[in-house]
Amino acid sequence: MPSPAYASLMRIVSLVPAATEIAFALGAGDDVVAVTHDCDYPEAARALPRVTRSTIAAGTSSRDIDTAVRVAAAAGDSTFHVDAAALADARPDILLGQTLCQVCAVTVSQLPAVMDPSPEIVPLDGDSIAGIFDDIERVGEAIGRAREASRLVTSLRERIERVRERVAGQRRPTVVTLEWLDPLFSAGHWVPEQVAAAGGTEAIGRANARSTEITLDDVVAADPDYVLIVPCGFDAARARAESGVLTADERWSRLRAVREARVFTLDGNAYFSRPGPRVVDGIEQLASLLHDRVGSFS
After folding, report:
1. Is pTM beyond 0.85 here?
2. Could you tell me if residue 180 is inside a domain?
3. Distance (Å, rounded) from C-alpha 84 to C-alpha 79?
4. How far apart are CA 137 and CA 69, in angstroms?
5. Which pLDDT value is given to residue 1?
6. 3-class DSSP assignment, residue 75
7. Is-contact 132 12, C-beta < 8 A?
């Protein structure tokens, strides 16, 4: 049976791509009336009005993005901004926002001090896989789809457990996951958990902690079995285009993973940097990469 709140159409505005994906995954796509400039999944989200903007132009290099973010932060500002007029036009009943990262998206602290009518603000703050699942259930409660959220989380947990069962007993290769390329950052938050669930061991990044700036010397010292290139906000094609900064450095060729062709460029934007349901797709992808014998999970 559907949740009772279906009867009254609500107006949901998402201020973070992961929240958009969660709302659609819970079957509330028709209630989503506006999203961020970065929302690109599912396809239906692309057609919705935008209520945020970025001061960074499309195609800006990794180094220049990093510089712009640091300059804005030093000035107490952000490279992401709310379009107050567009937000007012959207007339939200529910605002899905985030408090985790000022670099990746608008935060709830950037919302106008007064909105009329005043919407319910639902903050997403998961920095772990369990936290992501909590966020899914929090969104479900807020939009009247608690049962759908519970079913989705159960399904996601079951998929992770299937991966763990299939990689159990196999050697756990070491992995360095790169979340940014210029400068280099190792992945944090839930990504080391994704690696662990897929049967690997993250050699530098720490679970449930922020990503950390590192050097190529750090990667060489770790000399992992695999290097995964998953820059935040970049798809695989963009990540490959940006990876020249690594391959041009003579230290890169010292890595065993490079010599043995175990460097993989993946869609970080879809499967690793967004704290939503598709992190489980990322776990399944990693398991297939790290363990040839487990096969595909599709």
Report:
1. yes
2. yes
3. 15
4. 31
5. 36
6. coil
7. no
